[in-house]
Model the fold of this input.
Amino acid sequence: MTHRDTLLVEEGEILGHQAHPGEQFILRLKAPRIAQRARAGSFVHIECHPLLPMRRPLSIMRAEPAAGWIELLYRAFGAGTRLLSAHGAGTRLSLIGPIGRPFAPHPERPRALLLGGGVGIPPMIFLAEEMRRRGGYSPLVLMGSEVPFPFTTRPSQILVSGIPEGTIAAMPLMDDWGIPSRLSSLQGYPGCFHGYVTDLARRWLAALTPAQRGEVEIFACGPHPMLEAAARLARDYALPCQVSLEEFMACAVGGCAGCTVRILTADGPAMKRVCVDGPVFDAATVVF
Amino acid sequence: MGGQAVNQDDKRALELDFCGMRFATPLVLLSGCVGFGEEYTRVEGFSNRDVGAVCLKGTTLHPRLGNPPHRVTETPMGMLNAIGLQNPGAHHVVREILPRLDFSETRFIANVSGSTVEEYVEVTRIFDDSPIDAMEINISCPNVKEGGVQFGNDPAMSARVVEACRAVTDKPLITKLSPNQTDIAENARRCIEAGTDAFAVINTLTGMAIDVEQRTPIIGNNQGGLSGPAIKPIAVLKVHQVYQVCRAHGVPIIGQGGVCSAEDALEFLIAGATAVGVGTGLFYDPLLCPKINAGIAAYLKRHGLSEVGQLTGTLRLNGQTVCA
Ligand SMILES: Cc1cc2nc3c(=O)[nH]c(=O)nc-3n(C[C@H](O)[C@H](O)[C@H](O)COP(=O)(O)O)c2cc1C
Ligand code: FES
Done:
């Protein structure tokens, strides 16, 4: 079988573990082999604590193959992630990864619109970095959050037409990479668009010429209602859209069928596994 | 225990005969945990050669989409699942999946499921006419509306299913017993009379977990099957009880429920199992099987045993205690 030996079991050593408001954590792990193979959209199945019976799937936010590390961003809201958040530098945790079919951007659509909501932000950061490395893309990254963003926001140095006046807050890392980004929230954070990230996206799309819109592809990761709105947006403008889905997982290697979602196929509706058939799916095939 | 490599002598010591099949080791990968046999080979370092047999996902006559999400959730030292027997149907499994399996690596066992006696028979017949090595009759699935555990909890119905399947195949038949019944030993006795060659003990226990904010069950199917370390002591006792019935007939048992280490596996063997299943434990450690093999081999050596089969049913019960 062609998929043999594609997933690695690697002991990851914690290099850094930063706490951010809203119970958010950025975890950097030394895992050179997984860092080498990770792609935007792939995730790791991580041991949170040896006394828990199950691992947790967490998407990869960044991978630095040269330095041999990967970075994860997660919210501690359950037993597993709360125990995970207590580990400090030097702790070694078993990882399975990198798992899943990554995002597959179409080069003929260089105006990539990246939408990340809450814990769905990490894969969008990875995708932006991948597009920057590959070249030929001009992505716009829009991120929404109802808890403070896990980074210090800063007024963007990069102008983007079609973005409402006053929506100036950006992620500094994106600015450093020369990639425009904007933020949205219902919480009234300064410089952020007041509304959903998909509403901000709609405004930007509406301001494009039809020719420009013909070069757009949407990528989204976040809570279900946000992905549904992204799929609707794509449908309204007849744009391709790739979404990264989440579901509870047990094995994360395709063995248990515990993580399935309903997907439309040529043969009718099917239950597809988020872990190995996804997590990235064509939004037009997802039954929300 | 565990970790060290297994040498040639150890390898021989781990081999065994199970209903005429040669198992390379006493470990069996459990139905529903390893898809249709090849999924875990994605993991570097994992090999089907490390186990005696692999049980394929529960298979029905017609394709089934299975249950809505969530299908799995963690519980204290275990997990609940309600997959709902998602499978592409017996014909598809035989035509499309079996030809792609590498039968030189291990033995493959089909998991026969159904809603009626006739369906069990039909699926058995389809697998009988295939390269599959043996069949496991799943009369203990808690996650479907009809059949499954309804049959498994009624000794008379269990025996009817076994007898009907027996009539259409000469391949080894393993009956998978439910722990959700009053007298598992009585059920085993009836299934032996009906012609089963072996038992799998136990399937999952039914359970529920509730999201207190939403006041809804976490599992889409409302209830699910509990597996993992939480059920191990129950499973060990059930194996012990079924073994009391099996011993006289030479009917072997695949003991299972929460095995995560060589010690766990040894408990099952001593309680009366001939082989030991690994399911949920794999989700935490996909490379668990070689560690268990090495641990069992080291134990055999330490206890002066030359074959793993010598361990089966060697439990020495404590004397009667005085209850006031
Ligand atoms: C996700 C999942 C799916 C399962 N599906 C099946 C199945 O299709 N047929 C079956 O006979 N048992 C099924 N089982 C039960 C297992 O084969 C095994 O008997 C049980 O989980 C106890 O072993 P364990 O604690 O090592 O997992 C399933 C268990 C799990 C966790
Ligand atoms: S989590 Fe087991 S198949 Fe996806």
Q: What stands out?
A: The pocket of FE2/S2 (inorganic) cluster (ligand 2) is lined by residues A 249-252, 254-259, 273, 275 (CB under 6 Å). Chain A has a mean pLDDT of 96. The interface with chain B takes residues 1, 3-9, 47, 52-55, 79-80, 94, 96, 247-261, 269-271, 276 of chain A (CB under 8 Å).
